[in-house]
Amino acid sequence: MSDDARTIARLLAGDAETVELTRSWIRSAFEPYRRRLAQELEDLEQEILLELTQALRGDRFQRRSSLSTYVRTYVHHKCIDRLRAGARREWLSIDDLDLPSHSPSPLEQLAETERTEVALRVFEEMSESCRELWRMLEQGLRYREMSRRLGVGEGALRARVLRCRKRALELRRKIFAPPRNEIGSPTTK
Amino acid sequence: MMPDRDAATDTTAIDCHQAVEFLPWLVNGSLEAGEDRALRDHLDACESCRGELGETVEAWGLATRHIPSLALAEFALGVAPVSLDCERIERHLAACPSCRGELGLIQSDGVVDFEIARTRRPAARRRRRQLPAWREWALAAAVAGVLATGGWTLLRLGPAPSPTAGHLASGSNLEGAEPLGPPRSEPPRAFHTGGVFSDGFESGSVVVWAEFETDEPPI
Predict the structure, then answer these.
(1) Mean of per-residue pLDDT scores for chain A
(2) Contact at 8 Å (CB) between B216 and B196?
(3) B88: which chain A residues are within 8 Å (Cβ-Cβ)?
(4) Among A76, A89, A147, which would you mutate to test the B interface (most chain B Cβ atoms within 10 Å of its Cβ)?
(5) Concatenated DSSP letters for chain B?
(6) CA angle B166–B169–B170, rounded 5-degree value
(7) pLDDT-based confidence at A154, cuts 50/70/90?
(8) Strand, helix or coil at A1?
(9) How far is CA A129 from the centre of its chain?
(10) Distance between CA atoms of B19 and B35, rounded to whole angstroms?
(11) Closest chain A residue to B115 measured between Cα atoms?
C-alpha cells in the first residue's frame, strides 16, 4: 500500500494524527488568503476537511498527484471561489455550498465545460478595449467612474459598451457557425 | 445621462435607446436608486428592451467567465486539469489580469513540492512561470523557513543569468534524482505570475526553478 493510500485509510478511520496532518496542509495552503478571508478561514477549514473526507470516501481522488497536492489544490479552489463570490458581493447560503454528495452529473459537467470553453474563446477573440470595459463592469464601476477613468464622454462610453456586447454575441455565433466548406456540400442545399 | 425628473409625478421616464445603453450597469448593480427604478419601470413595460436585457446578460456571461477555480488550482500546482486543456488556460491567462492575479495567489502559498518522477517522461510539457521581485523575497523567506525546520531536500542558490533574474535549483540529493544540468536560458513567458518550473523529466530527476521578473505589480 502506498504512503498516500495509508494516509487516506487513517484519515477516513479518524486517526487524530492524520487529521491534524491534513489540517496542517490545509492551513499552509491558506497563506495567500489570510488577509482577504481572515474571518472565514476557520469555517473554511472545517468545510474543506469535511468535503475532502467525503471525496476520499467516494474514491474521487484520482491519484493524478500526491495527496498533499490534492489537498492544496482543493484549498485553493475553495478560496478562489470564495474570493470571487465576495467580489460579486454575493452571499452563499448553506444550500448553495457545492458539497461532493451533490456533484453534477457527467452530462451537466460536460455542458458546463463546453460553456466555459466557448466563453474563454470569446474572451480571447475580443479586442483588448472590450476586455477592459468588461473588467471595469465586472468590478462594479459606475458609468461615470468608467467614463472618467477612460477619459471619454458618458455617451461615447455607453455606445462602446453596447458595441462590445454585440461583438461578444457575434463571436459566439461565429464559434458555433458551421465551417464555410460545408456550405454547398452534396448533403446540404 | 438620465433625463430630468418629472416634478409633477416624481418619475423619470426613459426611452428604449437610453434603456438599452444603461443595461450593463443595471446588471453590474451600480446604477443609482432613481436610475435603477426608471430602468426597471421601462423594462416592465417594454418587451423589446427585456429582450435586450437578456442579450446583455448573455454577453456578460461570456465576457466575465474565468478559468474555473479548480482548473486554475490544478494548473498552478502542476496537475493536468481535467476540465480545460493547458493551452486554453495559458491563452486566457495572457489576456486576463484577474486570473493571473489568482494564479499568483495560489503559487505564493510558500510550499514548494518536490515530486520525484520515477519513470522517464517526455520533456514536452514544460511550464515556466515567473515571479515578480516582491514575490522573490516572499518565496526566499518561505524557503528559508522550510530549511530552518529541516526535513526538506537541500536547495542550492544558483547564479542569476541576468541582472533581473534569479534561480533556485534543487539539489541532487533527491531520492532517485540525477545531477542537475546547466540553468535554462530561454526567454521568459509573457505573463508574469508566481510559481515554480519543473524540468528535467527526461533524466528522471525533477529540477525546480523559480525565475523572477520585476514587471508585475502585486495584487
Answers:
(1) 86
(2) no
(3) 117, 120-121
(4) A76
(5) -PPPPBTTTTB----HHHHHHHHHHHHTT-S-HHHHHHHHHHHHH-HHHHHHHHHHHHHHHHHT----HHHHHHHHTTPPPSSS-HHHHHHHHHH-HHHHHHHHHHHTSS--------S---S------EE-HHHHHHHHHHHHHHHHH--S--EEEEPPSSTT--EEEE-TTSTT-----PPP-PPPPSS-----EEE-GGGT--EEE-EE-S-SPP-
(6) 160
(7) very high
(8) coil
(9) 24
(10) 10
(11) A66
B60-97 as b/e: b if 16+ CB within 10 A: bebbbbbbbbbbbbbbbbbbebebbeeebbeebbebbe
Spell out, as residue ranges, where chain B has pLDDT lower than 50.
4-11, 112-129, 151-219
From A80, which residue of chain B is nearest by alpha-carbon distance? B69
Which of B95, B59, B93 has the alpha carbon at shortest distance from B76? B93
Minimal C-alpha gap between A43 and chain B (Å): 19
Strand B211-212 and strand B130-131: the pairing is: parallel
Strand pairing partners for B167? B158
Q: List chain A residues with CB under 8 Å of B66.
A: 84
Helices and strands (H, E) in chain A, number of each type: 8, 0
Per the structure block, which three cell numbers stand in for B10? 416624481
In this complex, do A126 and B109 lie within 8 Å of one another by their Cβ atoms?
Answer: no
Q: What is the pLDDT of residue B132?
A: 53
B96, closest residue in chain A (CA to CA): A131
Among residues B7, B106, B25, the alpha carbon closest in space to that of A145 is found at B25
Residue type, B102: E
Distance, CA of A155 to CA of B2 (rounded, Å): 11
Check if the beta carbon of residue B180 is closer than 8 Å to that of residue B205: yes
Residue-wise pLDDT tens digits, A89-139: 444 444 444 444 456 777 888 888 889 999 999 999 999 999 999 999 999
Structure confidence at residue B144 (pLDDT):
60
B101 φ/ψ angles, rounded to the nearest 5 degrees: -60, -45
Global pTM reads 0.64
**Nearest Cβ partner of B88 from A120, A137, A141?**
A120
